Amino acid sequence: MYNFENKKIVLPKSNSFKISETLECGQCFRFEKLGEEKYTVVAFGKLLLLEENSDGSVTIYGADENDYKNIWENYFDFVTDYDSMKEYLAEKDDILKNAIDYAPGIRILNQEFFECLISFIISQNNRIPMIKKVIKNISEKYGKFICEYEGEKYYAFPTPDELSVADEEGLMSCKTGFRAKYIIDAVSKVRSGEIDFDKLKDLSYDDVKKTLMTIKGVGPKVADCVTLFSCGKRSAFPVDVWVKRIMYHFYFNGEDVGVNEIHRIADEKFGEYAGFAQQYLFNYARQFQIGK
């Protein structure tokens, strides 16, 4: 449900969408905070401005009704019933209920595949501020200019063809570090059709993950992130340091277990909703420094 008026999209107040909680939970990197619940977002070659109003509704600037229906409704996953999903998960697991109650406004974004893939390759052994900086550098160097807003110039993330001109030296100048060679391999495999999003999205979760891991430098965690955030595989359960800590702390009595065992428990407890559970748990662990 939304209203379109004067080139603005107005969304009613929702217990399942908070701008800050959705953007700052570690799943995306092309956003800037301008004020309290006021953010810019760059995605699909476009710039959006989102702002929460005094009554809790959210106004989206920079999108016409056609773009909203064709891009942003799916990007923000507004077609999914989060209220029912959260109720289901909370009833099954008290720990997860606390994580959901802490940030009930998280939604999983459906991101553009190529940008998501390169972004999570960059994320390896990296902090979020630096990930954002590297992606911004790559966009400014190789992507198309979108527009200028309040003195800031915004660029689209480059397409595979645009990024194919980048060599290791050029990517290193964007502060990619050792990840440059992985990015080059990813670009090559996407351009050759070896990694084809249109084919991937129709595969099973396991097959998508295996295919992505044929890219140099893409391990289980990066592959899981891409399957979850761009391929729509909501049973994916990315395991990074924070997810390990909260799982050890709450589900294994502090015992250091293997990633396969974490995945087994996640599948057993959360099933097809494991990806949603991961986002609530990851955010909760990071905010409260659980297990650090």
UniProtKB/TrEMBL annotation:
The UniProt keyword set, sorted, is: DNA damage, DNA repair, Glycosidase, Hydrolase, Lyase, Multifunctional enzyme
Q: Does the record carry Ribonucleoprotein as a key word?
A: no
Domain HhH-GPD, which positions? 122-286
Q: Which residues form the signal peptide?
A: none
CDD domains from the entry? ENDO3c
Under which EC number(s) is this enzyme classified? 4.2.99.18
Reaction catalysed by this enzyme: 2'-deoxyribonucleotide-(2'-deoxyribose 5'-phosphate)-2'-deoxyribonucleotide-DNA = a 3'-end 2'-deoxyribonucleotide-(2,3-dehydro-2,3-deoxyribose 5'-phosphate)-DNA + a 5'-end 5'-phospho-2'-deoxyribonucleoside-DNA + H(+)
Kindly list the biological process annotations in GO that this record carries: base-excision repair; nucleotide-excision repair
Keyword Lyase belongs to the record: yes
Q: What SMART domains does the record tag this protein with?
A: ENDO3c
- Kindly list any coiled-coil regions of this protein: none
Q: Which Pfam families match?
A: HhH-GPD, OGG_N
Q: Which domain of life is it from?
A: Bacteria
What's an example of a GO molecular-function annotation for this chain? oxidized purine nucleobase lesion DNA N-glycosylase activity
Q: Which PANTHER family match?
A: 8-OXOGUANINE DNA GLYCOSYLASE, N-GLYCOSYLASE_DNA LYASE
User: Belongs to which family?
Assistant: Belongs to the type-1 OGG1 family.
User: What protein name does the entry list?
Assistant: DNA-(apurinic or apyrimidinic site) lyase
